[in-house]
Every structure is written in structure tokens, then in C-alpha cells.
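Box S2. Input/output pair 1.
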Amino acid sequence: MLKTILFDMGNVLVFFCHDRMCRQIGDLYGRSEAEVRELLIQSGMQSGFERGTLQPHDIWHEFQLRFGAGAETEVTLSQLELAGSDIFTLNEDIPPLLEELKSMGLRLVLLSNTSISHFEFIMREFQVLQYFDDYVTSYDVGAMKPDAEIYQAAIEKIDCSPAECLYTDDIEIYVEAGRTHGLHAEVFTDVSTLRGHLQRHGLNLTN
């Protein structure tokens, strides 16, 4: 019987748009979306941010060095964080499921590749992370899915054996990696399909 459900965050709990992130940062600095994408994503800087090797001030400092002269006014750290984080929309179908799972006594744990700025924005703006009992984030662990280290960190947080936990993620290679660590794991497509997965794993859901 399942005791814990392990959830990915991006495109599961909330949807996100990297194009919007690059466009909004570009608007701050008077640069194109493509220029921002090259500096932030293609250079690996965003990956470093999500691994926790770079902090918000490091990102801001790099943008100031590269693009600061093109900005009409001084761009503050808070402005950059907002432009880079206001890219999420809530998956409206998720909260009712989370509430139902909590009412059944299940433990909910987050497993996400994310930066501290994105995590804190979602915590602040949406009533979704508050359902969770614990969080495993790449920036805190210093490793990203599908690295073994982040799955091992998650297994320490689930408070049950891997065989008593179901993990759901929208990225198939991350799901496959979860299975190699003994977790039940299913690819997330939508909440209706996830409900079916949960029921097949023995949960008696209302819908």
C-alpha cells in the first residue's frame, strides 16, 4: 500500500514558460529574448542556479556585467528575480487531488529541479506547496534529476520504503531513474491520468 506520493513541480503542480522568462528579462535590459536565452540557459548559468552553485546575487551580477549598460535604468536584484520567476501558472486540477491525498493520511513530498528564486516565488504566489510535508530541491541537494544523489535525498524524506512510494514526473527519463531506485514511478500527463495511476496502485480515490 502506498504511504507517500513524490511529486515533481514544473508542469505538474505549476506550468512554466522559459520563453516568457527570457522575454521579461530582455525587456529589463533592452535585449532580445535570444540574447537572454544564450546567457542564461545555453551558457549553463540557469543549471548552475538550479544546482545551487550560483545564488540570486551571482545571476544579477552576471547580467549587470553583460547587459547592464543597455538598460535604461539600473536593474535591481528584486526586479531581475521577479522577471525571471513570474513565469508560472497553477495547474488548477492539482489542489483538489492534493487535498484528497492529505485527507487519506498520505505523506506528500516534492522532488524538483528548481532554483531558490523559483521555489520561493511559487511558495509565495500559489497555495500548492503548502500541502507538502517535505521538499527535495536541486538547489538544496546540489544535484539535479536524473543524478542519483537527488533520488537518494528523496528516499531519505519519504518516511517509508521506496516500494511504498509513487513518484510522478512529466519527464520520462526522470521517471525511469526513479524506478532504478526502487520507487513506483509514472509519467505525469494530466491529473485525470494520475488519478488512474494512483488507483491502480491501490488508492481508493473518490473520482
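Box S3. Input/output pair 2.
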Amino acid sequence: MKAVVNPVSSYIGRLAPSPTGYLHLGHARTFWTAQQRARAAGGRLFLRNDDLDSARVRPEFVEAMIEDLRWLGLAWEEPIVSQSQRLDRYRPALVRLHALGAIFPCHRTRRELAEASVSAPHEGGENDEPLYPPAFRPAPDAPLPPLDTAGFATNWRFRVPDGETLSFADGHSGRQVAVAGLDFGDFLVWRKDGVPSYQLACAVDDAELGVTEVVRGADLIKSTFRQLLLLRALGHREPSYFHCPLVCDDQGTRLAKRHDALALRALRQQGVNPIALLAGF
């Protein structure tokens, strides 16, 4: 399935679902918005399969994801980009951050982090991760262990510039502002199971695919500040951002993949007309 491309346009967008469950109405609205913005600009649209969470990714979710997106009438350029096939692209980024001294190894256990979070503020509300305690950081001039085989089997965190105010102009919600070290803390860029975090993989992919605008849900606004820091450190150009409002259920709770009744797969099986569904957005 090929997207219509204007050779003059420099716009590049992407769809980036994670196959850890079935897509729901919230995904449909966000991805439809992404396609509409790409088409309005006469640009290109890629499909990126964010499949690094090996514990939760399942083949049936990948298959359903592609079927659901095509059912909605979405089109993208082939081939599909799968993050699990791009590990050789993420390692050099970690090496670069290591050379810059922008990261540090984190050997704290989940229990230690949980105990520290009792008094620490949470970055995005009570359901988000707590700020990483500054006391857990090594000194800025502490020597870093090498990135040998053992180094790639280590949790690495990005050291945020405490007190720096970051901002970006969101295409939907206007100017967004956060203070590093206050609104978000040191964050994971690499996991000890040998794969990058969402933040690093997303930043590298968006840069290497030449994405000019990232369209995604408003729940990822805080992630944007983290990715802006990574893009800056790695010397990449920043894309534009458009964060879509979240879709909620009848009780006002934002949709998640556990909302089986509102999963696109379930709606397809019920014979829902996708055109009518999208017209309601």
C-alpha cells in the first residue's frame, strides 16, 4: 500500500504503534490525524513497528495492528520499519552519549527506586515515574565504565541539565514548557537487557528517518522534552510536534489497550463502518 507523495514536499511523518495489545479508538484518532496532516502537506508517511518490549510484544498483535490500520484506510510507504531490527543503529547513539559524558550507569534496584519515590514528586502525576533522586547520581567527574559487552548489559541514564527550562511549540496545544530536574529527572536511555529505552530509540529513529513532524497522543508530551535533550546531544535536528487530545471512555478514563470493547479489532468484528467511525472524530 503506497502513500500519495508530492516530490516537492519535504514533510515526513510516521505512525508508531507498539504491538503490546490491540489498538483502540484513541490510536485510530491519532493515526488518522497523522495521515491527514501528511496528506495536507503532500508528504510521506512511514509505519514504525515499536516492538522492543519483547516481554509484551506478540505476533498476533503485530498482525492485528497492520490489519486495523489498513481497515481504517491508512497508507504508508513500504517497508515497515521494525525497531527490533535496528539495534545496530541504537548502539552508536549510546556510544556517542557515553563519549560526551551525558549518561551514567544506574545500578539501583526497583525496590530502591520505589522506596525513594515515597517522598519524591512524580513527573506526570501519581501514575508516572518519580523523579530520579539526585543523591543516586554519581559525581559529574566520576569515570564512566567502558561500553564493552558488560557495558551494553547495564542500565544507563541520561543526566538532565538541572534547572534548564525547555520549551517547544506544539501544533495542537501551543507552547509547552518544562524545567529539567524539576518536571522530569534523569531518565533511562539503555536497559540492562541490551536494548534502548523508548526515549533513545524514538529519538534515533525520528532523526534517521528524517521525520519533520511527530504526531502522537498528549500523554507523550513529557517524553518530548526528554527526546529533545537526546536529539540535541546527538546533534540531530528537532522535528515539529503535534500532540492529539486523548480519547476517554464513558467514565472519563483515558483509553488503554485493556479496553477490549473499544479495540479496533473488536469493532471490526462487529461490522463497524470505518468511514463512519472516523467521521466522528
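Caption for Box S3: Confidence is low (pLDDT under 50) at residues 120-127. Helices lie at 25-40, 59-71, 87-100, 110-116, 198-208, 221-234, 264-269, 274-279.
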